[in-house]
Amino acid sequence: MEKMWSGRFGKELAKDADDFNSSIAVDGKMYKQDIKGSLAHAAMLAGCGIISKEEAVLISDGLESILADIESGVLEIDPAAEDIHMFVEAVLTERIGDAGKKLHTARSRNDQVATDMRLYLRDESETVVSLIRKLLAAIVDQAKKTKTCIVPGYTHLQRAQPIVFAHQLLAYAMMFIRDAGRIQDAVRRMNVSPLGSCALAGTTYDTDRMYTAKKLGFDGYTLNSIDGVSDRDFCVELLSAFALIMTHLSRFAEELVLWTSWEFGFVELDDAYTTGSSIMPQKKNSDMAELVRGKTGRAYGNLMAMLTVLKGLPLAYNKDMQEDKECVFDSLETVKACLGIFAPMIATMKVKKDNMYRAAGKGFINATDLADYLTKKGKPFRSAYKTVGNIVAACIAADKTLEELTLDEYKAFDPDFEEDLYGEISLAACVQKRTSAGGTGMKSVEMQIRFVEEYLK
Ligand code: ARG
User: What is the pTM of this model?
Assistant: First the structure.
């Protein structure tokens, strides 16, 4: 295929260089945004008297027919084309003749690709946010069912203090709400039109950048044409938001892998979201969770790759920037796939309350409450803490739980212990007494559930 820019060249691009240079395999998916951008541009050119009304009609009819034909499969995106922008323009000129050659007046691929990317990522960001919302709905649903389900809370993966399982789940809800907010923040900053920046310096034509910006749903246009074509901050911001979503999913995935093990036995994932082994007949593996955890690495890699592409790039456009799409699209598809599999996996998981409660009974997770008991009787916390440490050591030596020590045994450690201590250290009491704002007590958990439900409205 003859290149549009062949005029200055003495011979054709080498085949391997042509393949190396081509980005259509990656940017072909932006055909809709590319055509939308061109429709707005053509309407602006006509509105400003840069092309005739008749030419604008030919161009927009031609572009609409290309869009319809790509969508219906009549027109295949040519894998040999240089990129989606060249492809659409070439097909347009094939279809409508000379008017097609006027479309690129007062425009460059540099502002065109920056516009396409912003449009594409704006649409896709909405998809990601709606997937986050689906996951949040699954989480809050499970939280409502596990408001009274006592389980050990952990620090250092050691049993620490009793909590309700809903509290643990709602911690993830808070992370995903922040994730959605980060994407929306990035979109807000990104939603300005680079179109009309042209190659880098603007144009000699009397264009109307606000017109195309409005038509494309942007809040305004970029104020500096060099920045307009060379800025990829929005890619970095979104990649970073995606990387953090993956961090959260990966932590959640890791917990699911632990919770579904025989060692924990807290949760059973639905058969539809687990796999078996090719040799061990008994196995039920949490492959989806593990894959999500594994895919987190590529999301981090894409963020680092994008930052590295930009580092040291002189202004304005450089071909290095074509790499942006590979990074962003890969992270985008990864995050969509992971959120997409996580929501139904959480919605269908079974919580094994009895196993959780049994685990909570071992490990002295009510020891803090025993220390608090003495503290409330007037002992300084540090002294009470030390006494309880000694009690725990004695329990370990005697293979007993705190509940199993007699009052006489307690009194040997501190005469202030009374019969009411047993009520104070029961697991249910330990949870219910944690009434501080944001704690695992019932009021706080119900408040969190309402907060997430309110968010989802
Ligand atoms: N395919 C290119 C990209 O994705 C489009 C912009 C090309 N501009 C240029 N001056 N070569 O970045």
Answer: 0.94
